[in-house]
Amino acid sequence: MGLIEFLILLIVAAVCGGIGQSLAGYTTGGCLTSIVVGFIGSYLGLLIARNLGLPELFALQIGGQTFPIIWSIIGATLFTFILALLNRAFVRRRP
Questions:
Q1: This prediction's pTM
Q2: Alpha helical stretches, state H, 1-68
Q3: Cα separation of 66 and 49, whole Å?
Q4: CA-CA to 23 of 20 to 30 Å: which in 16, 62, 69, 75?
Q5: Which residues 6+ apart lie within 8 Å of 6 measured at CB?
Q6: What does the DSSP 8-state code read for residue 30?
Q7: Where are the domains positioned within the chain?
Q8: Helix 31-52 and helix 69-93, axial crossing angle in degrees, nearest 10
Q9: Helices and strands, number each (H, E), in the chain
Q10: Which of 44, 64, 45, 65 is closest to 55 using CA atoms?
């Protein structure tokens, strides 16, 4: 994977993470956080899809790597919901 493919992969992950955060209604940070949420969302979404026996929907091939767009958005939304719940739980506990 070359530099251009890696940058495209980062941009796609950032967009998927940003869409997931928008759907969840909670933002955890800026562009770098959206990239991380997009990558974690893709792994979480694929894990859910494989355990339920569902196919990969709208997967992009970037530099020999497959990046599932739909499952990444779904996983990023779920991951953002989990982050929001944890944040609310810890913020309420502080005196």
A1: 0.84
A2: 3-24, 31-52
A3: 15
A4: 62
A5: 63
A6: S
A7: 3-21+30-93
A8: 110
A9: 3, 2
A10: 45
